Each structure stands twice: as structure tokens, then as C-alpha cells.
Amino acid sequence: MLIGQVNFGDKRLNKRFGLILDRLGKHFDSIPKSMQSSGETKAFYRFINHSQVSSAKIVAAYESGIAQSADFLENQVILGIQDTSELLYTGNRSAAHLDCLHESYQKGFFMDTLLLIKASGSPFAISRLSFYGRKADSLGKRNKQRQFVLPEYREAYRWVTGFKRFASYFESYPEKQGVYIADREADMKSLSLSKIPKWL
Fold first, then answer.
1. Among candidates 136, 132, 169, which has minimal Cα distance to 153?
2. SS3 call for 51
3. How buried is residue 181: exposed, middle or buried, by Cβ count under 10 Å (0-12/13-18/19+)?
4. Which of 76, 67, 133 is nearest to 102 (CA)?
5. E strand map for the chain
6. How many CB atoms lie within 10 A of CB 163?
7. Residue 78 phi, psi (nearest 5)
């Protein structure tokens, strides 16, 4: 398991995390239904609210485990496919608190994903997963107004971030070949000017 080596600085938390992963891996359902008892459900919520537990630790452990996984090490060619999905929640009771998609009445958010796939076509890891939305007052702004926004804060910068993340996995494995795939939104100058390792 890619995130089995996460360390929260407490053996009890590490053990609880392993149990939670086991339960969630076997049951694709709600938290109460995935846990085997009300006690486990309470322990789950105590765990995620613990001061020593953070999503950053879990994500870091997961990412560090990707290049060490058997799927990565045993395959000469790795594909990195990045794309963005639109999650529309207009009509939900909590939609009023969400940002917008393309129109002010479209409540929801975008999900940007970088999926790692073996040459055989089998996915084995999600390398990057990020969510973002648009503020209603920013919709319809002209490109000239957006030029004053720093590149790293622009939506399009996600392609550069994804590309750099994908390339980083091959730094210690120059004999492998990585193939980065994105749609036409990634056809941008800042990405083409990025330093391209010889193995990509």
C-alpha cells in the first residue's frame, strides 16, 4: 500500500490509521457503515481530529511511496494523464456556499487529477488531486485583467505543476520513460518552456 509508511509520531495513531485503511479498502460506503462498530466510528472521528494527524502527512507519505511501488519499479514506461473534471452541485442545500464553474448559477468546483498508468493501460496511482472554484465576481473578466495575476496563482498553472510533479518521479530512474498526456488547455508557453528531462 502506497501510504502504509506514514508516521504520525505515535504508534497508536499509526496502528489506528492502518485499521482505518483496511476498513475503507474493503467497504465502499459511508464511514459508519465501513467501520464495524459504533466504537470504531467514534475512533475514526477522534483520529482525524487529532492534533498530530494532518492530510499533509498522509499525502506526503503517499507521494513518496509512488516511485517505490512495485507498479512503478517493474514498468519501463509510465504514462501520466492529467485532466480536469467539473463537479456540479447546483440544487444541493449547501450549494450556496460553493464557488462557481463557468456561470454564476453553476455551483460546484473543478477537480484536477494526474493519473499514473502502466503501458498496459492499468492505472496504479493518483499522483495529483486538487480542487478549485471560481468566484462569481471574476467570471467574464477579460484576459488583460488576468495578466496582472502571478502565474502560480492562475488556473492554467495547474498544468505546469502537474508536469513538474510527474517529471520528479523519474529523477532517480533515468532509464525509465515517462509520457505526459494532457488536453489542449495545456498547450501553453510556460509549459513548453519548462525544463524537459531526457527521459520524458
1. 132
2. coil
3. middle
4. 133
5. 77-88, 108-118, 123-132, 177-181
6. 22
7. -120, 130
**Apex CA 158: angle with CA 171 and CA 54, to 5°?**
80
Residue-wise pLDDT tens digits, 127-159: 888 888 888 777 765 544 544 444 444 667 788
Q: How many residues does the chain have?
A: 200
Place of cell 502565474: 151
The helix (H) or strand (E) run that includes residue 150 is none
CA distance 140 to 123: 37
Domain boundary assignment for the chain: 1-66, 70-200
C-alpha torsion 132→138→140→145, nearest 10: -110
Longest CA span, the chain:
57
If DSSP codes are grouped into helix, strand and coil, which group holds residue 119? coil
Q: Is the pLDDT of residue 25 over 60?
A: yes
Lowest model confidence (mean pLDDT) among 103-107, 142-146, 168-172: 142-146
Of 195 and 78, more confident: 78
- Coil vs helix vs strand at 95: helix
Architecture of domain 70-200: Alpha-Beta Complex (3.90)
Compute the half-sphere exposure of residue 190: CA atoms within 13 Å on the CB side of its CA: 16
